[in-house]
Each structure stands twice: as structure tokens, then as C-alpha cells.
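Table S2 (continued). Query chain:
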Amino acid sequence: MTQSQSGFDLTPPNADQRVQLEAGLSAEEKEVLLHHGTEAPFCGGLLNQKQAGVYCCRLCGLPLFRQETKFESGTGWPSFYQPIDPKHVIGVEDNSYGMRRIETRCARCDSHQGHVFPDGPKPTGLRYCINSVSLAFVPEGAALPDPLEREERL
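Corresponding output:
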């Protein structure tokens, strides 16, 4: 088992679990999470969300970002300056569309989340530009999603 500093099991879902997780996705969620698509700008359901809480991976439930690290970037997608735990979000070089970018993926299930850019605010200077459909918002005090039945808590 690989565990993050914040105590989350980063072991990927097994094949049966993966099938179950993917079965619950909408067509748009499948396109973004599994096929590295992008939702249209300014259309995502979490863009204007301002309530205290945590943003988790829509596929496996791993907590990725806190509301207090979200900022208005003007790009049309939810933007954050740092993940909850640096081990929860991985970066992969993406040279598609004639651009050199860093794709962000969930460290547990490898689902596509968005991209990270070096033009964010202090203290990190990073902008994690994330698709709303890649995330599940959990209000402060509510239980985290636990589709893998790992009974994890922040």
C-alpha cells in the first residue's frame, strides 16, 4: 500500500472496482476523466462554488483541493493554487494541440483532472486549472465520498 502524508491509500482501484467506478459516470464525465477531454469554459457547475469544503476526484473520491486554495483565474474553469497533499495530484507532460503543458491526474485512479500552469498566485505561483466534471464537491463537515470503501478521513 502506498500512503500519502495526509493518510490516504493511493493504491489504484483493482479491475473490478474500476469497472464499477466507471459505470457511474455520465458521458461528459467519461470523456473528461477517462479520455482526457475538456469541458467548455464558463460552463462547469463548480466554477462559482464558494462554500467551505473539499473537492474530491469524481472517479475514486480522493480529496484533491480545499476551497480555501480556490481562486478566480478568469479562465472559465475552477482554479486552485495547491492540492491538499502533493502526492494526491500527479503531473504528466502533455504535448497535444501543439502546446507543451502539464496535465494533472488523480494519483490514485489516474483520471484526467485538468492542467497546471506557472501563472498562479502566491504562495505557490501555480494555477491548477481543473474541470468541474472531474471533481465532486463535499461541504465542510460532510463525509467524503468512499466508493472504494477505504474509510478515509481528512
